[in-house]
């Protein structure tokens, strides 16, 4: 009950002093495959053998992934390695076929995790990033003030779409799954404003197709 009132108070403050934009996107995640299904289907299709998950929490996803070798990183619980993602990437000397990023849901940390993952993904590997498609403004406010929290991970996806050395999409399933291939960008995003941290939810909503490069689950498996 205490947390409920705390979130309500923060929401009220944001309503008074934050961005005044309350349109929403109408994604229905219940009709789409889960992240676990998508990860496992990619592993099976590509015959991958090495999997890394960053941000395991209660192992809701990590424990279900069937693969020859897997590493899970979390500073508090779950997985196999008790470190922050920064600590793990600094000490790691392995490469992986598939990396799933589901750590701290902020633009800054997610971008660091993406940049670090690019360095250790196999050339034919894939990086997936969870929580890229907040449906409404309350889901993406940092710090968290709402139940389901995507954070501003979406800004890291927009940022990565300006890289010419990776090819980035967003699969419209399970709160949005960023998909990053280590190959030449096929649809380079060119923007005048590179201050990604200060992008607004109104920008995300208005330029949704351009920024996020959304693709369906079926389309994802066509381009793998």
Layout of strands and helices, then pairs:
Layout: H1 2-17, H2 35-46, E1 50-54, E2 69-73, H3 85-91, E3 96-101, H4 107-120, E4 121-129, H5 137-140, H6 153-160, E5 167-171, E6 177-181, H7 201-206, H8 208-212, E7 214-215, H9 217-223
Parallel strand pairs: 1-2, 1-3, 3-4, 5-7
Antiparallel strand pairs: 4-6, 5-6
Helix pairs in contact: 4-6
How would you describe this structure to a colleague?
There is one protein chain. The N and C termini lie far apart (46 Å). The model has no long low-confidence stretch (mean pLDDT 95). This protein has 224 residues and is of the alpha/beta class. Helix content is 35%, strand content 17%. Helix 4 (107-120) packs across helix 6. The chain has one domain: Rossmann fold (3-Layer(aba) Sandwich). Helix 4 (107-120) links the parallel strand 3 (96-101) and strand 4. The longest helix has 16 residues, at 2-17. It has a 7-stranded mixed beta sheet, sandwiched between helices. The protein has helices at residues 2-17, 35-46, 85-91, 107-120, 137-140, 153-160, 201-206, 208-212, 217-223, and strands at residues 50-54, 69-73, 96-101, 121-129, 167-171, 177-181, 214-215. It contains 9 helices and 7 strands.
């Amino acid at each position: 009950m205490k947390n409920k009132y705390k979130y309500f108070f923060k929401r009220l403050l944001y309503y008074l002093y934050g961005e005044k934009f309350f349109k929403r996107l109408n994604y229905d995640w219940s009709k789409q495959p889960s992240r676990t299904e998508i990860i496992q289907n990619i592993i099976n299709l590509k015959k991958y053998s090495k999997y890394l998950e960053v941000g395991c929490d209660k192992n809701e996803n990590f424990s279900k992934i069937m693969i020859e070798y897997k590493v899970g990183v979390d500073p508090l619980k779950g997985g196999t390695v008790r470190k922050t993602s920064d600590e793990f990437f600094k000490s790691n000397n392995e490469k992986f076929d598939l990396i799933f990023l589901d750590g701290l849901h902020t633009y800054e940390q997610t971008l660091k995790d993406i940049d670090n993952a690019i360095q250790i993904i196999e050339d034919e590997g894939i990086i997936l990033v969870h929580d890229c498609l907040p449906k409404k403004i309350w889901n993406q406010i940092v710090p968290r003030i709402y139940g389901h929290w995507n954070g501003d991970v979406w800004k890291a996806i927009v940022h990565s779409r300006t890289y010419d050395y990776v090819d980035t999409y967003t699969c419209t399933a399970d709160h949005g799954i960023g998909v990053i291939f280590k190959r030449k960008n096929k649809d380079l995003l060119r923007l005048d404003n590179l201050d990604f941290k200060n992008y607004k939810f109104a920008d995300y909503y208005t330029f949704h197709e351009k920024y996020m490069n959304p693709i369906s689950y079926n389309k994802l498996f066509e381009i793998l």
